[in-house]
Records
---
Amino acid sequence: MVKNIAVMASGGGSNFENLAVKSDFLNMKIKVLIIDSPEIYAAERAERLKIPCRIVNRQDFKSKREFEAGIMSALADFEIDYIVLAGFMRILSADFINCYENKIINLHPSLLPAFKGKNGIEDAFNYGVKVTGVTVHFVDAGIDTGKIIDQTAVIIEDGDTLATLEEKIHQTEYELYPAALKKVFDGRV
Ligand code: GAR
């Protein structure tokens, strides 16, 4: 059965577009892109891909609770099987997560449990580790702590700069995220 997906993003949206392009292979349909601020590039990608985009602007809400109610109300217009986070840079509350238990999936640019948080690539680079990577995991109430679905290691070589590492991480994400989602949709995790 085709899985209906909501993608949530806060930035450029390259992973969103990569998933959209691979939708048929994944037997999924992205019903909506939800973004948390206006004028981010992901919205332009959605327009080009003819995927509905809803802006739930964090600045329009007094509290996180109301903001999340806004997300839920946007989601309620669609029949969604999974929420796929693709560069969504906000921490969701336990209340929100409990409403979608094991239905929210996140992409994180490090080999968890190392380098949790907002700057996974830079933190790994600055620490000087020689191996970092990409993780796809279910979202639980902790920060980047949910059950791991899949991971790929990325070697940091002597000549690498932050920019070359970012590029390697993104290329790895474009392979890993679709493969990990396929595992979930096929019931292999
Ligand atoms: C990706 O590298 C993703 O792993 C990261 O944001 C980037 C989004 O890129 N997510 C996190 O750091 C979540 N903590 P994109 O907007 O081009 O897809």
Note: The first helix runs from residue 14 to 21.
---
Amino acid sequence: MDNRNRPIGFFDSGVGGLSVLKYALQELPNEDFLFYGDCANVPYGEKTAEEVRDLTISCCDLLYKKGAKALLIACNTATSAAIYAMREKYQMPVISMEPAIKPAILSEKPGKVLVMATPGTLSSQRYARLVQKVGHEQRLISVPCGGLADLLEQGEFNSEEIKSYIRKKVEPYRGQEISGIVIGCTHYSFISDQIQKIAKELLYGACDIYDGMYGTVRHLKNLLFEYNLDKRTPGGNVELFASGEPRHLEIMKKILKYN
Ligand code: DGL
């Protein structure tokens, strides 16, 4: 098969990466996608880096065996733990995600930046290096959101439980001037509007949202062109895979339709 016509593999610990896939479907309408959610093992954000790396590699092996021409790790936590190993292992473009702190820091607006991500991402060496590279560490406030990915995994994004979770996380910064909020986990992209709404109620400042998925999908698009891997025939297809119980696949299908 012409390499251009092979699918792009997307991976996440669970349903979060579907937020990235939905945007990729708009940007790359001709491409075929394979999406694997490791729903049996989610959340990754509270596991050790070694556990996350091993799980990520075994799931991505499956996408590789299914003929993926490129891999997008639609998970900040898996990126922090496994990206070097993945790039060594696979002879294909491997695109990663990281919290979008750079654009948040570069914004001219006054105030601090809240970085909402999993405990695993925020405590990783990779994140520490990113902070060092971007600079202005004193403007960044880490907000580890343990347990939030688990709540979102059910595919219900508007529940009272989720609203009160966000409120509890934002409350400690009540009255502070916040220029931006970094959505550092792909699960949270589904609730970025709610996060911003609650933040604007409790905080002061622009509370602009910064989500790494847009830059990541643009990067994927550029790499496909660069490696002559962009599909040129019309039409596109998505195949979903989930580890664990069959209900996970049903939730994923529902989310893919959700706007
Ligand atoms: N969606 C993942 C991320 O972007 C992690 C969620 C989890 O498994 O804890 O970090």
Note: Residues 49-65 form the longest helix (17 residues).
---
Amino acid sequence: MKERDFLAISDLTSKEIFALFKRAKELKKKFHAGQKLEQTLKGKNLALIFEKPSTRTRVSFEVGMEQLGGHAIFLSAGDSHLGRGEPIEDTARILSRYVDGIVIRTYSHEAVETLAQFATIPVINALTDLLHPCQALADLFTIQEQFGDFKKMPLVYVGDGNNVCHSWIMAAAHLGVPLQIACPKNYGPSSRLLERVRKTTGYVPTLLDDAVEAVRGAKIVYTDVWVSMGQEAELKKLRALEYFQVNGELLKHAAPNVKVMHCLPAHRGEEISMDVFEKHSALIFEQAENRLHVQKALMEKLLADEK
Ligand code: CP
Ligand code: NVA
């Protein structure tokens, strides 16, 4: 892995993350003031390889690149030879000769690590089955923006122990975010990931299988879909997760002014009730918007020429 890859939250130091958030804040302010942004990525090309669907991630990277003067090339699974079996090692070496960076969303996290190993240009993880670090980065920025210090805002993750949950575990281990997780017994976070985090950082998250217990007094409750992309056949999960819906009843046990976050897309009636989603939609859509600003700062950091 190169210094300029972003495959997991831990690839940036906390100092780098705070610097990135400072820049994201500036970029957001200028964006809202209707000012043209400095063309820091002029002449840069970014390949976006997406083997899973996306609305937010794809559009925020493409638009972000354009706003900074660069250009993005979208490659879906069916558009490139990767989808026909060309090895990821060769894709890495070819793209390194044409473009300045690669954003990839795929199934296997190991495939992204291999891509990063063989590429000579920065690689950004836009979601794997294991992690979604760009989401966690924008969420941390949102918490900082809304509430000040994210280290002082305990977050309770409720639902499936998936890629987003794993990125929160990494964020907690790496940055000291106070985290509590509520998942059904068979759908908790990956034990391999927990073991790796414990070995490398000593961090062990608080895992509960009772959502009511987990959200007691909570200030931020975070949830994500129960069935992630690629798991559509796992329907019995829905039964196992039914007591983990973030709804008005559950939130009665949280702090009176509890905030709810969701990375989207949301399945109303599954992980979140319609009324809770709408009540907290301003924060949820701010979270989604922040993907754009934070990823622009990230692309500048990884792709822009050193000044
Ligand atoms: N939250 C998120 O990554 O959304 P997309 O799947 O639309 O990119
Ligand atoms: N856990 C979800 C996140 C979507 C952004 C998935 O992987 O489908």
Note: The chain is about 45% helix and 15% strand.
